[in-house]
Q: What sequence folds into this?
């Protein structure tokens, strides 16, 4: 079907922060073409920026496509972007007529041309994985706001046996130091006070043998930038240099997301993680020696094929030993094309449910204890958004906790707050001083 070229768009991102970043860059690209951002219900082009990491996330796309039909029977132009596009490719257009464009995570800089072809009635696919070409072809950053994501590395060479990422995002590639520092400066010029460096294996970033700490130190030198974070890291890339940065870069926030997945060495080996429970705990010890107040976060998978009750209990023991401030945990989900999907002894759903519940029970207890231990502290909070209550603002502590205050302060202010109450998911504070200039 031919149709007028769309004048408005809506990007709906699912999945990880890297997808959020890609979604922002797509919006900036289309904005630079003169298209207007619109709500999902009104937009003439809807981009579903999808995630393939677990089956549930991937299936969601198809129900979402169906939901785009409008009351008058028409539908917007629909693009499927992101990791489902990459992994399923032409299957997406074979499965539903309602998709005009399928564009992978490395090809979205081509969207304007693809939209023009789709307007002529073509069904367009672009699933090339041409390295990091897109970054040099995208318009300069236009995003404003106190916090920003910045992708510095993409892809994965680790091939954990459960994971689709090496297939959807390709091998590990690092963006250049110069391009990243430029982008960071333009984000800070546009008002960013906090930058989170992103990568599927962000601590595998390297240029000429220099690691992520090199980038962190470069960002440290940007005046106006007050906070630096990075995610997600692999234990095997936690170098001495990066750990040292936690000790001496004041702007580097005391938070580390370091997925471990399991606390049992046989399971870790079957997952091809290339670390043991003990080597992981030793890394945590070194990080804590460098930065004693660091908040630790992790990812866990329960019910990996063959996981026994005793092996699962090793994971609970590792959690006790590591002590997490927060964590994400999932039931194992077989992904097509990954080695684990065809392993023997897939675990029954009710066993997974039971294990997930016990694991999350323990993690929730640790998270509440971590939050309660913050009570009485005077801390800095970067205000990110308005809350539901009158005058309420919500921001983040250095340890990535959500902090609510009711105060006459602006979004984007770095305020000083006394923490007065703590729940499992957030803290409340009272304002001590407005817009302090942190280091
Ligand atoms: N099943 C369940 N969880 C998974 N993850 C990755 N692949 C799978 C899978 N097949 C989880 C891991 C990873 C996080 C991003 O998602 O815990 O760290
Ligand atoms: Fe999902 Fe992984 Fe793709 Fe992120 S990189 S959107 S987590 S499949």
A:
């Amino acid at each position: 079907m031919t149709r007028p070229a769309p004048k408005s768009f809506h990007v709906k991102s699912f999945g990880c922060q890297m997808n959020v970043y890609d979604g922002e860059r797509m919006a900036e690209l289309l904005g630079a073409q003169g298209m207007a951002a619109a709500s999902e219900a009104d937009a003439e082009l809807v981009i579903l920026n999808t995630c393939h990491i677990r089956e549930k996330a991937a299936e969601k796309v198809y129900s979402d496509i169906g939901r785009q039909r409008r009351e008058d029977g028409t539908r917007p132009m629909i693009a499927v972007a992101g990791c489902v596009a990459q992994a399923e490719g032409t299957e997406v257009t074979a499965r539903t007529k309602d998709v005009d464009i399928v564009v992978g995570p490395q090809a979205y800089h081509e969207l304007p041309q693809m939209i023009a072809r789709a307007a002529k009635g073509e069904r367009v696919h672009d699933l090339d994985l041409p390295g990091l070409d897109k970054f040099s072809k995208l318009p300069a950053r236009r995003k404003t706001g106190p916090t920003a994501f910045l992708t510095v590395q993409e892809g994965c060479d680790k091939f954990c046996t459960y994971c689709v990422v090496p297939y959807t995002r390709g091998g590990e590639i690092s963006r250049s130091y110069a391009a990243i520092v430029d982008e960071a400066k333009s984000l800070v010029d546009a008002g960013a006070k906090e930058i989170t460096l992103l990568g599927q294996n962000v601590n595998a970033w390297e240029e000429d043998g220099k690691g992520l700490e090199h980038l962190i130190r470069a960002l440290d030198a940007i005046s106006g930038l007050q906070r630096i974070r990075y995610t997600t890291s692999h234990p095997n890339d936690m170098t001495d240099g990066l750990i040292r940065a936690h000790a001496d870069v004041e702007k580097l926030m005391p938070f580390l997301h370091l997925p471990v997945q399991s606390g049992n060495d046989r399971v870790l080996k079957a997952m091809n993680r290339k670390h043991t429970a003990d080597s992981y705990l030793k890394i945590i010890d070194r990080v804590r020696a460098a930065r004693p107040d660091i908040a630790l976060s992790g990812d866990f998978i329960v019910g990996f094929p063959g996981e026994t009750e005793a092996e699962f209990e090793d994971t609970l023991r590792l959690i006790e030993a590591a002590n997490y401030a927060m964590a994400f945990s999932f039931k194992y989900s077989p992904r097509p094309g990954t080695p684990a999907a065809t392993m023997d002894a897939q675990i029954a759903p009710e066993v997974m449910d039971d294990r997930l519940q016990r694991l999350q029970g323990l993690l929730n207890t640790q998270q509440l204890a971590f939050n309660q231990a913050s009570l009485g502290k005077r801390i800095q909070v970067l205000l990110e958004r308005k809350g539901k209550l009158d005058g309420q603002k919500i921001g983040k502590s250095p340890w990535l906790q959500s902090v609510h205050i009711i105060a006459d302060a602006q979004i984007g202010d770095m305020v000083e707050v006394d923490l007065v109450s703590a729940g499992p998911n957030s803290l409340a504070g009272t304002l001590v001083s407005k817009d302090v200039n942190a280091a």
User: Anything to note?
Assistant: The pocket of 5'-deoxyadenosine (ligand 1) is lined by residues 53-54, 162-163, 259, 261, 299, 301, 330, 332-333, 335 (CB under 6 Å).
